[in-house]
Each structure stands twice: as C-alpha cells, then as structure tokens.
Specification:
D-amino Acid Aminotransferase, Chain A, domain 1; 7 helices; alpha+beta
C-alpha cells in the first residue's frame, strides 16, 4: 500500500546511560501510521494493512483533528484498547484486530474502545520532519495535539527523562516495556538498529525488557553497519496525495 514504514527499535535488557535519552511507554498494541489530509484519513499498520475501518473511533478522531488543524499530517503511534484511561492488555485488542463485519465493529467499539497513542510525527502541513531531531518533532506533535486536539481515541504519549522510574511503572502496570530515544535522533523510516535478544523473553514477560531506539551515530559506531539513507523529505508529502488516502468509511 505504501513504501513509508515506521522506524523500528532494537531490543535490549538494560537502560542506556549517558547522552540525551528520553523514555516513553511501550504498550501492547498495533503500530500505526495515521495519514490525514482534509476529509481523508488512512490508518496503516506496520505490515501495510489498512486498519481504518476496523478502528472507526480512531479514524474519526484523526479526521476531526485534520479538520480542526486545517493541514495535512502523518502521525506515528500505537493503537491500544482502553479501560478507562488505562491501556489494556493485548488480549483485549485481539478481539478487534481481524473483525471486518460492520455490525460487529460497531458493537466492539462500544465494548472495547480503542485509542491511538501518538508518539511521533513525520509530516506537519507542508513541513517534512523526518530529518529533524526528535525534540523538534515532539514540539510539533505537542502543538498539534494540544487540547482540544486530543480526545479519548487520540492521545499524546507520555515522555520522561527518568528511565528507571518508567521501567518500574512498566513492570507494575504490565506494559510491554519502555522505549528509549536519543533526543537528537532523526526518523529513519523502516530501519532497525541491530537487535539484541532478551533471554527468556516472551509476550507475557516483556515487562522486564527495555526497547531501544539508537541514534544513527550509535548504530554505526557500535555495530559497524552502513548508515542507512535518509528518507526523501518529499516522500511524506507525496504519499498524502496518493492511494494511501481514501474517505473514512470507504471500502477501497
């Protein structure tokens, strides 16, 4: 469907030290790129699957934001099922992941409401942000999602500088883990720094794991791999106007 895919993280067993690291919750959900322009929205999974119709409350929230902001954007986030203000376990999301019947979808959006928790932005209006550092992208994202931009179905991810505290919170609340990012890192679509396996790690025990997003310089120095090419800064804008978008509710 689209050749723009999310930036990926490697997996580690400990928190990074030194440098300008920030930390975000890693919930147990579906990775999504949300494309919006005018009255058109598309929710695309990490594997390129269209999830727009399966999560209509999220699509509607993104559409409302697009109309309010009056500009196009691409958001990166994670769809989770919510229990009140708390992200639920992955098992509750599974009941919605493969449902295609419209009546069943409408029923389950009431029983198991979903939300897109957004943690990054690739395009803001006509400005491509993929080569900007994380701290600049975060400012754009926070400005776009400032109230009333947020809703029950569209939320801004928490972020903090105390990784130990967030990891303890992850263990206590049963999150999948914690994401660590350099605040000067650019967005490398579809790239993953070399993965380090966590011994004995499974979906039920991932609360003890820490997920790392390493900067390009760290990846190159520590792993000896070639530095990946940066995405074309025009790609985000061009994708907005291509087949990745269709009106909400379309069966395309």
């Amino acid at each position: 469907m689209t050749d723009l895919t999310p930036m990926l993280a490697s997996i580690g067993s400990g928190l990074p030290t030194g440098g300008s690291w920030v930390f975000e919750p890693k919930y147990d959900g579906i990775r999504i790129l949300a494309f919006a322009a005018g009255d058109r929205v598309r929710l695309v999974s990490r594997n390129g699957l269209d999830k727009t119709e399966q999560f209509p409350e999220v699509a509607e929230a993104v559409l409302a934001l697009s109309k309010r902001a009056k500009r196009q954007f691409i958001l990166d986030g994670e769809i989770v099922v919510m229990r009140g203000d708390t992200p639920a376990r992955f098992q509750e999301l599974q009941s919605r992941m493969h449902v295609t019947n419209r009546t069943a979808i409408e029923s389950r959006r009431l029983d198991t409401p979903a939300a897109l928790i957004v943690f990054d932005i690739l395009l803001d209006g006509k400005t491509s942000l993929v080569t900007e550092p994380w701290r600049v992208r975060r400012k754009h994202l926070a400005a776009l999602l400032q109230p009333p931009g947020r809703s029950n179905a569209l939320r801004l991810s928490d972020v903090g500088e105390d990784g130990e505290a967030m990891l303890e919170q992850a263990r206590r609340n049963g999150w999948e883990g914690v994401i660590a990012k350099r605040d000067d890192s650019v967005y490398e679509a579809g790239r993953r720094s070399a993965q380090r396996q966590v011994p004995g790690c499974s979906r039920s025990s991932l609360s003890a794991a820490t997920f790392f997003l390493l900067s390009r310089s760290n990846t190159r120095a520590r792993m000896g791999v070639a530095s990946p090419a940066r995405p074309d800064t025009r790609k985000c804008t061009s994708l907005i106007s291509r087949e990745v978008l269709s009106p909400v509710g379309s069966t395309r």
